[in-house]
Specification:
Layout lengths: L1 H19 L1 E3 L4 E3 L36 E5 L7 E4 L3 E5 L2 H4 L6 E2 L8 H13 L1 E4 L2 H7 L4 E5 L12 E5 L2 H12 L12 E7 L8 H5 L14 H14 L1 H7 L4 H4 L12 H6 L3 H4 L4 H5 L1 H9 L13 E7 L3 E3 L6 E3 L3 H4 L2 H7 L6 H8 L26 E7 L16 E6 L18 H7 L2 H12 L1 H23 L36 H16 L2 H16 L4 E4 L2 E4 L2 E4 L7 H5 L6 H11 L1
Parallel strand pairs: 3-6, 3-9, 9-10, 10-11, 11-15, 14-15
Antiparallel strand pairs: 1-2, 4-5, 7-8, 12-13, 16-17, 17-18
Subcellular location: Secreted
Main location: secreted
Organism: Cetraspora pellucida
């Protein structure tokens, strides 16, 4: 009996040692129950990796050495929507699939927390049974183990890295954070991810959850009479009726037991209607990570929870701009007249004017609410900027596909921040309206009178938008007159003009749209790409030579204008096309070698 008792106590002691202070002979370090290495070197520490210098490299889309691309969806994703007789009418990844052949498409829980989504993403790529971690599952009171996956890339390793692309960029970055801290206990590293390509990512959180009903400062308390409460009730009802859960595949029943008790769950019908569950109350869901407070925890929290950039990984952040305009009367942002904004019109209007109470601004936003007003229809432009503790190498106003860094050699370990006004200028995210794939819609659009009408709208789109802007501002002025507050200037620190001013009558549409420009490093990048393009293209080189030669023959001169050179009415980049004395003194026709020599001397 005493021997049995000693063995039992010894077994419990060993279990506790394994859970809280496990020693790894190979790494010579202690790990916790989730596999995180205590005292592990930070991701951005150069001594954490080999001593070889890290060179610029590019992502490979074709050929034998093509990179493995994994697509990561964001909130409320779908794969494809098909209708019998009509075929596919919507494809979540339609634009990306046009550029990448056979990408690996993942599907983590659409309403899970960043931690749970990142863990599911890892096992969907690598394979195996999902393990959310013992500490994490105990802390938030859900099951530790989840579904089992075969693995999209079973040979995934530091020697065979992948590229993560998508709208769920924060999930991809959190996965890299877990890899860098060896959370999975399989000798992982951050360099298992070669690149992270983000589109409209909520790096700094969103104010939309607060408008929908999330109590500021609470992280997970939702107002009982709000849109967000209705959404949570809808999620619980779908999970309660398992046939609907199989249809929508929210991946919540395995963790939270939201199914009815008769089917092995823990939920009652009243609990589903009122959204009373651990999923709603314990903060391990999309609400926390979607909010500004949750985002700040990823860059201003404890050192061990802070996300760092990996020096072996390239980072591209596409910021969607130009979809809203700012009123000169109130300072609010309104959506533009574009098909890209129609589906998110209501959200865009609400984001463009939502103001938190002063106390919430100081404690939650730590800035003015107007900072988050400019948006792309679903997310603030400010929120799409990378976290402040991560280095941004350059900001590029992307107006041509040629300047998209995804097709060039780029520096790893830093952000390339790309301001995109027109998604068609990007290589990957040049989506089109999904409904044009319907046969009867295509038939209608091909009718001659419809084409004439569409051409009429496109030719006069600027006039229509100008009329729309003046009409909205006219209504705002009349509302101010009726409320007898014209003498009070709108106080939000943005410096708007006097409401009684009549300058709005002649102002252009473009004056109300915030335009982003490239910084110094971004301009140098653009000029470098232009120079390389000219040198590698004989036809373009001869074109510019002929333009310069004909202008010089006609007696034209060069004059500086800002960062560009004016040459016969054509603006040339200052760093790429600065003709030397040879162009002025030459008496003969210039050759390609002459042009190349002059260009290299200028650089």
């Amino acid at each position: 009996m005493s021997k049995l008792l000693r063995n039992f106590l010894r077994k419990k002691t060993l279990q506790n040692a394994t859970l809280f202070n496990a020693y790894d002979d190979e790494t010579s370090s202690y790990t916790d129950m989730e596999g995180s290495v205590y005292g592990a070197l930070p991701v951005d520490s150069p001594t954490a990796y080999d001593s070889e210098p890290i060179k610029d490299f590019r992502l490979v889309f074709e050929g034998e050495n093509k990179d493995t691309f994994v697509l990561v969806p964001g909130l409320l994703p779908y794969d494809t929507i098909e209708i019998p007789l009509f075929g596919t009418i919507a494809d979540y990844w339609g634009d990306v699939k046009e550029q990448i052949e056979d990408p690996c498409i993942t599907s983590p829980s659409p309403f899970g927390s960043l931690h749970d989504r990142a863990v599911e993403l890892y096992y969907q790529i690598k394979g195996g049974q999902v393990d959310y971690g013992l500490i994490h599952s105990h802390q938030f009171c859900h099951n530790q183990l989840g579904q089992t996956y075969e693995g999209l890339v079973p040979n995934w390793s530091p020697d065979n890295p992948i590229v993560l692309i998508g709208y769920g960029a924060t999930t991809a970055l959190y996965l890299q954070h877990l890899l860098s801290t060896n959370f999975f206990g399989q000798h992982t590293a951050g360099k298992m991810i070669k690149g992270v390509v983000c589109w409209s990512a909520p790096h700094r959180g969103s104010t939309l959850p607060y408008y929908l009903g999330l109590e500021p400062g609470s992280k997970c308390i939702v107002h009982p009479f709000s849109i967000l409460q209705f959404l949570l009730s809808l999620i619980h009802l779908i999970c309660y009726f398992t046939f609907l859960e199989r249809l929508f595949d929210f991946r919540l029943n395995d963790k939270w037991g939201l199914a009815p008790k008769s089917e092995g769950g823990e939920q009652s019908l009243w609990g589903a209607l009122s959204a009373r569950s651990r999923f709603s109350y314990f903060g391990d869901n999309f609400l926390v990570d979607w909010s500004v407070e949750g985002a700040r925890m990823r860059y201003a929290g404890d050192e061990k929870d802070r996300h760092y950039l990996d020096p072996h990984c390239v980072y591209l952040n596409y910021v969607s701009t130009g979809r809203t305009w700012r009123s000169k009367v109130t300072g609010y942002y309104w959506p533009r007249l574009s098909w890209r904004t129609f589906s998110t019109w209501f959200i865009s209007v609400m984001l463009g004017r939502y103001k938190l109470p002063t106390d919430a601004e100081q404690q939650v936003l730590r800035t003015s609410s107007s900072t988050f007003w400019q948006n792309d229809g679903t997310l603030s432009i400010h929120a799409q900027n990378p976290p402040p503790h991560q280095q941004v190498l350059m900001n590029i106003a992307l107006d041509q596909k040629l300047f998209d860094p995804i097709e060039h050699e780029i520096t790893p370990g830093v952000w390339y921040n790309l301001y995109v006004n027109d998604p068609s200028q990007t290589v990957l995210f040049n989506g089109v309206p999904f409904f044009i794939t319907l046969p009867f819609i295509e038939y209608i659009l091909n009718r001659s009178f419809i084409k004439h009408f569409v051409n009429f709208l496109s030719r006069n789109s600027e006039s229509f938008e100008s009329f729309y802007i003046h009409f909205v501002e006219f209504c705002e002025r009349n509302i101010r007159f009726s409320s007898k507050k014209l003498h009070i200037e709108y106080d939000n620190g943005l410096g708007f003009s006097d409401p009684s001013s009549k300058s709005y009558i002649t102002s252009a549409t473009s004056e109300r749209i915030v335009k982003y420009s490239s910084d110094k490093a971004g301009l140098e990048w653009i000029h470098k790409v232009e120079t390389i393009e000219i040198l590698n293209s004989p036809s373009k080189m001869l074109y510019w030579m002929n333009q310069m030669q004909s202008s010089l023959d006609n007696g034209s001169s060069l004059s500086e204008s800002g960062n560009k050179k004016e040459f016969s009415g054509y603006s040339l980049p200052a760093t790429s096309f600065m003709p030397g004395p040879m162009f002025i003194k030459a008496k003969r026709r210039l050759t390609a070698d002459d042009y190349k020599a002059t260009l290299m001397n200028c650089n």
